[in-house]
Write a structure and sequence with these properties.
It is found in: Cytoplasm. By secondary structure, this protein is of the alpha/beta class. The protein has 3 domains: about 5-95, MurE/MurF, N-terminal domain (Udp-n-acetylmuramoylalanyl-d-glutamate--2,6- Diaminopimelate Ligase, Chain: A, domain 1, 3-Layer(aba) Sandwich); about 100-330, Mur-like, catalytic domain (UDP-N-acetylmuramoyl-L-alanine:D-glutamate ligase, 3-Layer(aba) Sandwich), CATH 3.40.1190; about 335-495, Protein-Tyrosine Phosphatase, Chain A. It has helices spanning about 5, 55-60, 85-95, 115-125, 155-165, 180-185, 210-225, 245-250, 300-315, 320-325, 355-370, 385-400, 415-420, 440-450, 480-495, and strands at about 15, 25-30, 40, 65, 75-80, 105-110, 130-135, 140, 145, 170-175, 195, 235-240, 255-260, 265-275, 280-285, 290-295, 335-340, 345-350, 375, 400-405, 430-435, 455-460, 465, 475. It has an 11-stranded mixed sheet, with helices on both faces. Strands 17-18-22-19-20-21 form a 6-stranded mixed sheet, with helices on both faces. Strands 1-5-4-3-2 form a 5-stranded mixed sheet. Strand 17 (about 335-340) and strand 18 form a beta hairpin. The protein is globular. It binds ligand UAG and adenosine-5'-triphosphate.
Length: about 500
């Protein structure tokens, strides 16, 4: 694409200098990526101001700069009022509006986004469709995997990935849409067909002033679904969540509601039967009962399942065909993932790192455990300090034995984190222990387990990177620690006998 063609997509701008007839190589917001014939967009970020990097971008080969503040460089400058908005518009134009060629599902909510995207992926595979997933775990295009930094990447990365997806036979892309992405305009210009809400709970308060602004941030996904009826647009809303009425009012298109409690919702789950590793329920839609069998447990996963089924159904695929694919989903990585079992003891890894998620998981496990529930968890460093005593209290109250330990400290002192966790210990409680070292805490849980017990390793899910209090970053996974812990238990037993 030629420079002039690209900027034709922006009506309001001031061009200083003569745009050359050069074909653009790429557009980018990061000087560390600039190559010859790139367009560089200056973004004011949390840490840096891209305008200060304009000269460096030119030195690296940029042929034009997009800015909203005065800069002095030897290449044409396109001045706009908002460079973040310009970036979204230009990225969409540069890559040829690829999201219009895909069926797009956006999923927002505090908990359950990753799970819903992975259920949707399994359904799409079962329907023999090409699937794309973007979220916390990374980017997937059918079976190809790419890592990401953000749950929802910036607008240029997103448009580039959509373009790639169109080339790689992806039919449907299911992406997690974080509240930060909505507020920062990372998803501006994406033509969603379906927008899904999981739930809203008290999290990410370090990023939003209060619950009202957090709720308003997530509402943007539904308001941005569009205000015309040329293309079918559907919002999948959780009738059991406090946001239901508010978000319903924001949607111009059709709403498909789901619920595990209210039989008046469009998709209603009833007659739920939980087993140790599976769940059965009846899905009722327009008075017809559809039996569903899934390899996931917990009421919250019944809700996640309804949301995922609703999203694919809203795209026009038959409900019966969708439901037939569900048993093929083995589970979701790091979300109630069974990582070890021995002597009738089961060890699960779960990503629950908020009071709400912990409550849900512990309640679920309590319903199925034959013996005790042993929970191992800590609180992450550098953020959401107010969660620390709450998580401490919930774990001790809702498990039979809580082993408190370190989560990823991100450079904060673990002693400080523990000091903030301690006030949450219920007065007189004795069903807990504290081991600063997470490996030791996991080993201790495995050593003390008896037949019928369930061990929950909470907070880190499938994370492989561990950033400790001293600033060191190394490889650590709960799953590997659990497997080593089981081997160690048998070694110790062997030595005893
Ligand atoms: C606080 C925040 O939102 N940060 C995001 C933001 O970075 P930033 O604003 O700090 O950018 P910056 O580092 O100040 O740089 C400003 C500009 O200068 C440019 N620059 C900078 C240095 C340089 O040498 N050359 C250069 O060109 C940068 O490329 C950028 O264009 O823009 C980056 C690119 O899009 C993001 O990767 C980054 O997310 C960081 C990693 C982050 O942790 N974000 C969290 C808050 C977040 O977004 N989390 C949500 C999940 C939570 C939720 O549910 O809301 C997520 O979607 O991941
Ligand atoms: N619908 C739900 N309601 C409440 N808790 C849930 C729900 N779904 C999952 N959880 C809990 O939250 C944890 C995180 O789930 P998941 O990764 O799917 O959510 P997420 O929205 O992607 O979270 P994050 O944005 O932090 O990555 C799970 O491990 C589980 O403990």
């Amino acid at each position: 694409m030629k420079l002039e063609q690209l900027f034709d997509h922006m009506q309001f701008k001031k061009i200083v200098g003569q745009l050359p007839k050069t074909t653009i190589h790429n557009i980018t917001q990061d000087t560390r990526e600039v190559e010859k014939d790139d367009v560089f967009i200056c973004i004011e970020g949390a840490n840096f101001d891209g305008h200060h990097y304009a000269a460096q971008a030119v030195a690296s080969g940029a042929i034009a700069i997009v800015a909203c503040k005065e800069i002095h460089v030897d290449v044409p400058v396109i001045y706009v009022s908002d460079t973040t908005k310009a970036m979204a518009i230009l990225a969409n134009a540069f890559y040829g509006s690829p999201s219009k060629q895909l069926k797009m599902i956006g999923i927002t909510g505090t908990n359950g986004k990753t799970t819903v995207t992975y259920i949707i992926e399994a359904i799409l595979k079962g329907l023999q469709l090409g699937s794309g997933v973007i979220g916390t775990v990374g980017i997937k295009m059918n079976d190809e995997f790419l890592p990401t930094i953000n749950t929802t990447p910036d607008s240029i990365t997103l448009q580039r990935v959509f373009k790639e997806m169109t080339k790689k036979n992806v039919d449907v892309c299911a992406m997690e849409v974080s509240s930060q992405a909505l507020v920062k305009g990372r998803v501006w210009g994406i033509d969603y067909d379906v927008a899904v809400m999981t739930n809203l709970s008290h999290e990410h308060m370090e990023l939003h002033d209060n619950m009202e602004t957090y709720q308003a941030a997530k509402k943007l996904l539904f308001a941005q679904l569009g205000n015309s009826y040329g293309k079918r647009k559907v919002a999948i809303l959780n009738q059991d969540d406090q946001t239901f009425e508010d978000y319903r009012e924001a949607v111009a298109g059709e709403v498909l509601s789901y619920s595990v409690k209210d039989r008046n919702s469009d998709l209603y789950a009833t007659n739920v039967r939980y087993q140790e590793t599976q769940t059965d329920f009846d899905l009722i839609y327009l008075d017809t009962i559809y039996p569903v069998h899934m390899n996931l447990i917990g009421e919250y996963n019944v809700a996640n399942m309804l949301a995922a089924i609703g999203a694919v159904f809203a795209l026009g695929y038959p409900l019966r065909d969708i439901i037939a694919t569900i048993p093929s989903l083995e589970g979701v990585v790091g979300r109630m993932e069974l990582v070890a079992s021995f002597d009738d003891v089961k060890v699960y890894v779960d990503y629950a790192h908020s009071p709400d998620a912990m409550t849900n998981v512990l309640k679920t496990v309590d319903d199925i455990a034959k013996g005790r529930v042993i929970a191992v968890y800590g609180c992450p460093g550098k953020r959401e300090f107010q969660k620390r005593p709450l998580m401490t209290e919930i774990g001790i109250r809702m498990s039979d034995f809580a082993i408190l330990t370190t989560d990823e400290t991100l450079g904060e002192s673990q002693a400080e984190i523990w000091d903030m966790m301690k006030p949450g210990i219920p007065p007189g409680a004795t069903n807990y222990a504290y081991y600063e070292n997470r490996t030791e805490a996991i080993y201790r849980a495995i050593e003390m387990a008896q037949p019928g017990d369930i061990i929950l390793l909470l907070g880190r899910g499938p994370d492989t990177r561990y950033f400790d209090s001293n600033g060191w970053i190394y490889h650590f996974t709960d799953k590997e620690a659990a497997i080593n812990g089981v081997a160690r238990r048998f070694e110790l037993k062997g030595m005893e006998s």
